[in-house]
Write a structure and sequence with these properties.
Layout lengths: L5 H12 L3 H33 L34 E6 L10 E7 L2 E8 L4 H13 L1 H12 L4 E3 L17 H4 L4 E7 L1 H4 L4 H22 L5
Antiparallel strand pairs: 1-2, 2-3, 3-5, 4-5
Helix pairs in contact: 1-2, 2-7, 3-4, 4-7
Length: 225
């Protein structure tokens, strides 16, 4: 079945032009029908596939506090006071570390920007150091994990420092990776692909492709794999 329809992207295109509470309240039934309900079903149905990839990852189909990110933006520390996100985000985190910064898979659905991702986004300083130390301690393992995933047409992304952090060798063969503030790998899709009947299979294949990097990062932070 096709979980994602063109109406999902149409809703977010309209929301981008009308990002205010009055418009959203009038169009909340569209959000529930075209975005929230089909994605909760996708999460629920992807659970068995995810457990085959790794039993420690979680697909949580609860409407609040589960795998589907809330649409409301946290504007407390942002100059942009737009109340709503103009994309849908779905996360499949590790069961031992379920914060937004935990290792896991992610699905991003936005008009013009659709991708599957894996890794750790904006880790805290302690977690970041664990990953960097793991790359130094097991450079061959990091090389193997990244080469296996990148051969599957993944792309390493996220923010990086301009200089290598203190305490690490600037001549290390993976100095560029030691500069990373995020450890994310992603695979892009088109809106047409996202709306296809086999998108769950495509997403699952992407997750398998990115599995070596996610496994390395999970072990680096002490999570079972």
């Amino acid at each position: 079945m096709s979980y994602i329809q063109k109406d999902l992207f149409k809703f977010f295109r309209d929301l981008t032009k009308n990002n205010d509470r009055n418009w959203f309240q009038r169009n909340k039934p569209r959000y529930e029908r075209d975005v929230k309900e089909p994605l909760l079903q996708f999460i629920s149905d992807f659970g068995p596939h995810l457990r085959r990839i790794n039993p420690h990852l979680v697909a949580d189909p609860r409407s609040v506090g589960g795998s589907l990110f809330r649409i409301h933006r946290d504007v407390r520390f942002s100059s942009d006071k737009s109340p709503y996100k103009t994309h849908a985000g779905v996360r499949f985190p590790h069961e031992q570390t379920k914060t937004v910064h935990a290792p896991g898979y992610y699905l991003h659905l936005e008009p013009g920007t659709v991708f599957a991702a894996a890794g750790i986004w904006h880790p805290d300083p302690v977690t970041l150091k664990k990953v960097r130390d793991a790359i130094v301690a097991d450079s061959s393992g990091w090389k193997r994990a990244t080469s296996q995933s990148l051969r599957g047409k993944c792309t390493l992304g996220g923010e990086s420092l301009k200089k290598i952090p203190r305490g690490y060798d600037p001549d290390h063969p993976f100095a560029s990776d030691l500069k990373r503030k995020d450890f994310i790998v992603y695979i892009p899709f088109t809106e047409i692909e996202a709306c296809s009947k086999d998108f769950m299979k495509r997403f699952g294949t992407a997750c398998v492709t990115m599995k070596p990097i996610l496994g390395f990062l999970s072990r680096a932070v002490g999570a079972s794999w």
